[in-house]
Amino acid sequence: MKDSENIQIYVDESLEHLADIENDLLQIEQLGADIDEGLVNKVFRTAHSIKGGAGFLGYGVIRELAHKMENILGLFRSKKLEPDAAIINVLLQAADKLNSLINNVEESNDADVAELVDQLENLALGEKREIKKPEPVLIKEQVTIPAIKAKKKLPNKEARQVEKSQVLQAPAQGKSKKKIQPKGSGFESSLRVNIQLLDTLMGLAGELVLSRNQLVKSMAKRDYEAAEHVTQRIDLITTDLQESLMLTRMQPLGTVFQRFTRQVRDQVVSLGKQAELIIEGEDVELDKTIIEAISDPLTHLVRNAIDHGIELPDERKKIGKDPSGKVVIRAYHEAGQVFLEIQDDGRGMDGNVMVEKAEEKGLLTPEQIRLMTEKDKLDLIFLPGFTTATAVTDISGRGVGMDVVKTNLDRLGGQIEILSWPGQ
Fold it and tell me: Using an 8 Å Cβ cutoff, are 248 and 287 in contact?
């Protein structure tokens, strides 16, 4: 193979490995001293594979960083070092940096990773640490997304989880000898297709070719009766072909949901809160374009649940709640549609407070307020420029979150509804 092909394979495989590393590290953190050797081995192999390929191709910076990560994971595996939040933080930063370096692999040797390498080396030299398990997020925001052939499922979950020998990837766009295009770096660049579905498509294509040949022969012989039968057959085949092609774009929502584990973890740490993320319905499938479009709206909803919904631990204790809140992301099918729910057990929304805020900002007139229902009051959150935050932070307070959510869902033909009870 040419060097560029080897590099392309390395980039694709490395990004494939890194796709799961974030959630794996977060699971290792949750388990603490109760080491899951299989999980640690999986992450260890990821670092080892990236290191080996980088060494072979001459990417010294990537090799060095992966090697230092490998050392820490080796200490986990031998139980000479116990995972805690501080160690996992550094490993997550290192994984993020590896992702960035591999996405720009040709400039990776110019990158400065000295600080991360030093941190990893210091951790490797450290003594055994006492494990403190992270304390494990009901405003209820329900999003309705129109299902696209969602009811037609592949045979079973295992069939979808096929081995890199049973995966079809779209060719990289804009191939260039100078620039390596990472296929696994985003939704747009590649698509996993089940091998059984590919077999179905190949079979249908073969039947279509045979039927076309039969139609040509029938027309040449002026056998119109036979031609009519063949035409009916072609109609059935093309319908099945269209439905099967639609299924190639169906992807599980887990591809979006998984990223929120890291988001919630980092956000609660920055805000001094405690919260557990619960995910349900990862196997529910939607068209790939819809999954891409709802990614940002879901991010806003989860962020708001923690920032505005979940109270500080001391505040929760005073009102008789568990210090650790809960955020639930749930997906399910109902009546031919896909429903997404983001639920938290935080302080809830008070419609009267929201009216006061809107009135302060000049968004409502007294006449409008007089005619408002409770639902109307909650829906004020979708007004551009509306926020209940008392201060602007890097997370919220600018009033540009929920109106964007509604706008994006409206474009998809979806709907959003808010249910809330103050204090719940």
Answer: no
